Amino acid sequence: MKLGFEESQLSYTSGSQSARAWTEAWVKAWAYCPHCGHAKMSQFPNNSPVADFLCGLCSEEFELKSQKGTFGAKVADGAYKTKCERLAASNNPNLLLMNYDRRTLSVVNLLIVPKHFFIRDIIEERKPLAATARRAGWIGSNILLGKVPESGKIHIVRNGVIRDKELVLAEWQKTLFLRAESLESRGWLLDVMKCVESLGRRDFTLDEVYAFERHLGDLYPGNQNVRPKIRQQLQYLRDRGFVEFVSRGNYRLKS
């Protein structure tokens, strides 16, 4: 894998068109599928409803978003209705986020958000376009990246350094169990995972997770048994190998 874009891709006068051509050609030439490790991905025709790339071996689909600066808490995306309809579909795409350096024409960061981290709560509806806009009334969406646990942000390239492929594949496999869960069940799991990660260390106690009781209660006002629900989610994450039980009331995030 090399991080530079090809000079031959400088055929557009528009900066945004050039950037799209550079980044898409780079993914097609150098990116691998993090699900199965296949070395090549093929490109969908332009203006496909959601996805941009497809792994020919395992059929995983990918949507690419690229920009010069780092991504913030929100990532602008396509049509809100289409995005919501695809959430529960087997071909809902994984999200590739690329930061590039316009001066050196190279990739700085490339991270992937696996599709099993996508739930309804991280898709935000944008305001309809004004009546004077070319696509008046069109409603777009934002992906609320800030709501995604860190385990759902897998770096292939970080700060200009290519990460070991085996580490990337292992990190992908670590959370694949989420695909077996419904969108509703995933919501609780992801919120508890995010609470655990926010503690900032591998070892943690049940009481420390209980400290998020009010926060989780606000997220799920219909649930009157938040503490038992927290225990249930930790037991599930233990059974799936995401955390391990150390001793009574003590847990550890598995590396």
Shape: globular
Average of the residue pLDDT scores: 91
What portion of residues belong to β-strands?
15-25%
What is the subunit organization of this protein?
single chain
CATH topology assignment of the largest domain: PvuII Endonuclease, Chain A
- Domains, number: 2
Query: Residue ranges: pLDDT <50 for 5 or more in a row?
Result: none
Helix content: 25-40%
The order of strands across the largest sheet is 1-2-3-5-6-9-10
Helix and strand element order? HEEEEHEEEEEEHHEHHHEE
CATH architecture of the largest domain: 3-Layer(aba) Sandwich
- The number of strands is 13
User: What is the CATH level 1 assignment of the largest domain?
Assistant: Alpha Beta
* End-to-end distance: 26 Å
InterPro entries: DRP, DRP_C, DRP_PD-(D/E)XK_dom, WH-like_DNA-bd_sf
Domain Dam-replacing protein HTH: 184-252
GO molecular function: type II site-specific deoxyribonuclease activity
EC number: 3.1.21.4
What would your notes on this structure say?
There is one protein chain. This protein is an alpha+beta fold. The protein folds into two domains: 7-176, Dam replacing family, catalytic PD-(D/E)XK domain (PvuII Endonuclease, Chain A), CATH 3.40.210; 184-253, Orthogonal Bundle (Arc Repressor Mutant, subunit A), CATH 1.10.10.10. It has helices spanning 15-30, 80-86, 165-174, 183-198, 206-210, 213-219, 226-239; strands at 41-43, 53-55, 61-67, 74-79, 94-101, 106-113, 123-125, 140-144, 154-158, 161-162, 203-205, 243-247, 250-253. The strands form three sheets. Strands 1-2-3-5-6-9-10 form a seven-stranded mixed β-sheet. Strands 4-8-7 form a three-stranded antiparallel β-sheet. It has a three-stranded antiparallel β-sheet with strand order 11-13-12. The protein is globular. The chain starts with 14 loop residues before the first helix and ends with a strand.
